[in-house]
Design goal:
Elements lengths: L2 H11 L3 H5 L2 E4 L2 E4 L13 H19 L15 H4 L12 H10 L15 H13 L5
Antiparallel strand pairs: 1-2
Length: 139
Amino acid sequence: MCVTLLVAAIAMKATGSEVAAAASVQARGWTLGEDAATKQNPLQADEKTLAAGKAVFKQKCQKCHGPGGLGDGPDADPDAAGDMDLTNPKRAERNTDGVVFYKVLNGRGNPKMPAFKDELGEEQIWQVVTYVQTLRKKG
């Protein structure tokens, strides 16, 4: 079922605290906020933000995604190489800044992506989102 229709169906049946639970959606194992497609990155892709994002990426992401985001880090899952490759330009449309923000924030179980909501602040997540978006090959 389309994610939008699923959220609408849940919201129509839900009341009170159940509506708050419907504010996130599951998409291929990811827990995304209902605003994921439209959530805007508050940071500019300037030299300072990109340097900070690269530092976060190197510390938290590189061991799986690899130094260039190809999914070839020492802890990479070889069975999930396509999911781990951050450079694929075809993935850019469905992985807006807001979607990437929630993926970093919440992670998922399979293929494994750790949640960083307890390790990184919101600004750090936006910094790494800004940096990761620069890794995409121009299609």
